[in-house]
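Tutorial sheet, problem 5. The two components below are modelled jointly, 326 residues in total.
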Amino acid sequence: MAETKRIFTFLLRFLAFCTTLSAAIVMASSRERTTVLALSFEAKYSDTPALKYFVIVNAIVSIYGFLILFLPSKSQLWRLVVALDAVFTILLTSSISAAMAIAYVGKEGNPNAGWLPICDQVRKYCNQVQGALIVGVFSVILYMLLFLYSIHTALNPILLEKS
Amino acid sequence: MAETKRIFTFLLRFLAFCTTLSAAIVMASSRERTTVLALSFEAKYSDTPALKYFVIVNAIVSIYGFLILFLPSKSQLWRLVVALDAVFTILLTSSISAAMAIAYVGKEGNPNAGWLPICDQVRKYCNQVQGALIVGVFSVILYMLLFLYSIHTALNPILLEKS
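Model answer (structure tokens):
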């Protein structure tokens, strides 16, 4: 039973690592050159602070997710993991919210502020950003599950004594 | 000792309630009418989905924060509060990140997307949004503290037996 649980959480953590890594890579590789009214310009993620923040957070969480795959199951450090899972869940939530808010303006614009949507000009770029955000949502959900599981393990005194 | 702790958390929860309520009110009352090139327009929070989301989340958390002030200390519902604190901390983080991402574009613009800053035209509106965001940051910090304290209480079996 304990063995099944360990394999299950390992798989969940591996999946979470894959989603954050691919979200970071897809977002970081999003760029498109286009020409509007004889003016050539390039849309890329690093133009927008919110998308840069998204890439940085996902990259950091990927490194954390990768390292934690190799943490021995008997390690005392698992108690620290509850706190780290909480911190990274909150960071991921914050980065995806900021990126989504900006992506929404990019898609729909904000007529009252005079901000025009840019997705008609740079369709490929927009689709790539959207893809990264969808993967990002999955990574947030996975980290929330992992965090809930961490709390559950920490809350259960019998499991605590075992570890 | 238990009495001091109870008063301390009550004060913390009261403060958290005040900050979320004032963040919602300050943001919701932010509007300014201005004239640009003979065109009169009004800037208000409800034009921007991210700011609307900020107001809604802060209003919901205010109601939760208000109700919880009256929860008897012996209630079994305190175990549920750990989960609710987690949910609302994440919601607050998400709403303030989205609102900040948009407020940043409002202040600095995004030259690459052709979005001009609007804060020079509607200075009073911008300052009010900024004020709401600053109060919002405090409310997020307070809810994180409360959540950590909830976990700590739940993790401590001696306290659990007492309640």
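Marking note: Strands of chain A lie at 31-36, 39-44. Full credit if you identified this.
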